[in-house]
Amino acid sequence: MWIDTHCHLDAAEFDADRDAVRQSARAAGVTRCVIPAVHAAHWAEVAKLAERHGDAYALGIHPLYVPQAQEADLLALDLALTERRDDPRLVAVGEIGLDFFVPELCSPDMRERQWFFYTTQLKLAQKHSLPVVLHVRRSADLLLKGLRQCPVVSGIAHAFNGSTQQAQAFVDMGFALGFGGTLTYERSLQLRRLACELPLSALVLETDAPDIPPQWLYQTAEQRALGATQGCNSPAELPRIAQVLAGLRGLPLTDLAAATSANACRVLPQLAALYHHAP
Ligand SMILES: [Zn+2]
Fold first, then answer.
1. Which residues contact 275 (CB under 8 A, 6 or more apart)?
2. What is the CA(197)–ligand 1 centre distance, in A?
3. CA angle, 39 as apex, 36 and 45 as ends, to 5°?
4. 205-248 pLDDT tens trace
5. Is 91 helix (H, G, I), strand (E, B) or coil?
6. How far is 250 from 3, CA to CA, in rounded Å?
7. How many Å lie between the centroid of ligand 1 and the Cα of residue 241?
8. From the CA of 115, how far away is ligand 1's center (Å)?
């Protein structure tokens, strides 16, 4: 039994076969997915999807959607979190964070705007006693600074790809680190080392589907030029990604499944109640 702690099942890439994608993940042993929202227009959709498939969801404004987001969306988020307070499937505020990789988000104005949306959403997580699901891209130190100013109960640093020190700082704040498809590439030396060095209690698994295809789905630019289509990542890939991590750590797959599921339930406490109830 596996938990995909980060899966964008609401993404347009799944419009044609969303239910089938979720079903094949279930058949592969992925019993729970956490579906983080990326902007206000999708909040109702992720809640509906979680309800339909026995999954969990998070509500937030993703840093890549900060340019088109309105400040009123933050008030709407506060309201949505209040209205859904008793929904057992609402497990976190997310996906929120900072992205200093995408050039358009790196101007001084945009950095400031990202910081405003990130810190305001941290305050909402604190107010509603919810964990956060963090998008970390060239931004770990600033994200940590925000958390020190406004501590939250716990959370996940998703698609983590930072240093050991940064990883430890997140762990010290009650966070788990999300590992996924990037781990499946042999050239991900630093990330693989980190995934082996960290205590098992710090790790959760994720696909980030439809993004971050694992190595076996990835088509190079040359292959695509020859007509191959980029493989679409899906939550059904989680067990195979887990197999890579189990191999790297020299751990039985069943132990990794039990540990990462327990970790996910620890950092997203609402998930525990869902996880232990069928289906
Ligand atoms: Zn994401």
1. 3, 31, 32, 261, 264, 265
2. 24
3. 65
4. 999 999 888 988 888 878 888 877 767 899 999 999 999 999 99
5. strand
6. 20
7. 17
8. 18
Secondary element (H or E) of residue 93: strand 90-99
Q: What's the angle, vertex CA 85, arms to CA 80 and CA 90, rounded to 5?
A: 80
- Report d(CA 60, CA 40) in Å as an integer: 7
Write out the two tokens for 120. Answer: 């305001």
What is the token pair recorded at 178? 């999300």
Burial of 98 (0-12, 13-18, 19+ CB in 10 A): buried
Chain position carrying tokens 């949306």: 117
Residue 210 Cα to ligand 1 midpoint, Å, equals 9
pLDDT digits (tens, 9 = 90+) for 45-81: 999 999 999 999 999 999 999 999 999 999 999 999 9
Q: For residue 213, give both structure tokens.
A: 């295809």
Confidence check: pLDDT of 9 > 60: yes
For residues 84 and 60, what is the distance between their CA atoms, to the nearest angstrom?
13
Q: What per-residue confidence (pLDDT) applies to 279?
A: 54
Question: What separation in Å is there between the alpha carbon of 29 and the centre of ligand 1?
Answer: 21
Check if the beta carbon of residue 38 is closer than 8 Å to that of residue 61.
yes
Q: What is the mean pLDDT of residues 191-198?
A: 96
